[in-house]
Amino acid sequence: MGAVAAKRCVEWLLGLYFVSHIPITMFIDLQAVLPSELYPKEVSRLLKWYSREFKDPLIQDPPAWFKSFLFCELVFQLPFFPIAAYAFIKGNCRWIRIPAIMYAVHTITTLIPILYTFLLEDFSKAVGFKELRPETFHERLTLIGIYAPYLIIPLILLLFMLRNPYYKYEEKRKKK
To answer: What is the mean pLDDT of residues 3-9?
Structure first.
């Protein structure tokens, strides 16, 4: 009984992650790749406040490589979020395994250069980052802390899909 309850807790965590990711993607992340006319002034101000308060150089002046990640988020991830939210909140949806693995690997792969940039980029010499940028190690760790859940939750998702016996098991179809 404990394993079933633990599985449901992880499924609920994942379901809530995907539900929460929809407005974050639509209203925050995609402002860098969609026309500014699509967003109310309050939402644009929120993004500007965030980027200045936390000195997020990727949001202030997104480099082309970061915009390519956001474009993938628009085209591939955003349509997947409601499907994944449904599957995990409903629970016991084995069909989500392969798409969830694909999402997890893609997201983990995109977060590695983002976190690397925050940790090791010399922003004082970087030509591409013109505005406010993290100057102290504490500011860098704050940015890593903001982005880290988008690495950790997909890593949990990947391990859950690969290791959980319920999702590993595939029912054999009987021949008629």
So the answer is: 89
Amino acid symbol at 168: K
Residue appearing with tokens 């690495």: 151
CB 15 within 8 A of CB 83: no
Q: Using one digit for the tens of pLDDT, what is the confidence trace for 14-42?
A: 999 999 999 999 999 999 999 999 999 99
DSSP string, 20-37: HHHHHHHHTGGGGTS-GG
Distance CA 150, CA 127 (A): 27
First CA to last CA distance, the chain: 35
13 in Cβ contact with 51 (< 8 Å)? no
CB-based contacts of 96, cutoff 8 Å, min separation 6: 83, 84, 87, 88
What DSSP string describes the chain? -HHHHHHHHHHHHHHHHHHHHHHHHHHTGGGGTS-GGGS-HHHHHHHHHHHHHTT-HHHHS--HHHHHHHHHIIIIIHHHHHHHHHHHHH---GGGHHHHHHHHHHHHHHHHHHHHHHHH--TTT-SS--S----SHHHHHHHHHHHTHHHHHHHHHHHHHHH-HHHH--PPPPP-
Q: Are 18 and 100 in contact (CB under 8 A)?
A: no
